[in-house]
Amino acid sequence: MKILCLHGKGTSGAIFRSQTSSFRARLADQNIEFDFLDGPFECSAAAGVDLFYEPPYFSWWKNDTVDDVRAAVARMNEYIEENGPYDAAMMFSQGCVLGSAALLLHQEETPHLPALFKTAIFICGGPSMPILEELGFHISATARERDGVSRDALMQQSGNSAILTQGANRWTGLESLNDGLSEDQLRKEIECPFRIDIPTVHIYGSKDPRYASGLHLSAICVPERRKTYNHEGGHDIPRGTQVSDNIAELVKWALAE
């Protein structure tokens, strides 16, 4: 089986390979080929990344606009056509934005073409709000405001200073950021004219400033075909034994669907 792997902004395919090494080691008997791509645009490191990883760092687009996201989707589709097919996509942060946009656009605009993937694994990422709006999704004003605030909070809590002075304790203040809403309440902030209709896995952390965004992404996927897992951490992939075991089992479930 082949899995296309899409990294987060300000990282790289090599960094995403390292970030996922713990749970991927538990999949060694599954005969999986992981294809880790680099985004086309070199950029500065994501907050805190340069403490642990050397450059270069990449992004999938320069601006979070409909045109830029659509261009990134087109580039990815060309890559899939040349190097696929792929059984699944595994994505982190901005990679989730790219992958979910590709799935939505394919489902809405080119459903007659073969499916991009049979299943998708989203880690600490949300959807593209500009793409959702273009496709007729309704996003509440509260969710839109929180999206901007949470991006700022992520920059602050993921930065080098926060890591060096506070470590894991830097993920704070999120209950007020999310207005104390439950997972189901946060999902209802987006009204969906249609949903991603393949099996999906959604891995997120309740201490992540972008936690609500991860729930919004799960909301635009068919509930009966999705599995969710809260690793209870921040905007990262914990490498502890229990979390790695759980994520590996979710990957196995997705590939078996």
- How confident is the prediction overall: mean pLDDT? 94
Task: Write down the overall geometry.
Answer: globular
Low-confidence stretches: none
Number of helices: 11
CATH-assigned fold name: Rossmann fold
End-to-end separation: 13 Å
Q: Tell me which oligomeric state these chains represent.
A: single chain
The CATH superfamily appears as: Alpha/Beta hydrolase fold, catalytic domain
Q: What gyration radius follows from the Cα positions, in whole Å? A: 17 Å
Name the CATH class: Alpha Beta
Question: What is the helix content?
Answer: 40-55%
N to C succession of SSEs: EHHEEEHEHEHEHHHHEEHEH
Content of β-strand? 15-25%
Strand order of the largest sheet: 2-1-5-6-9-10
CATH architecture heading: 3-Layer(aba) Sandwich
Number of domains: 1
Largest sheet: 6 strands, parallel
Protein name: Serine hydrolase domain-containing protein
Organism: Penicillium daleae
Keywords: Hydrolase
GO molecular function: hydrolase activity
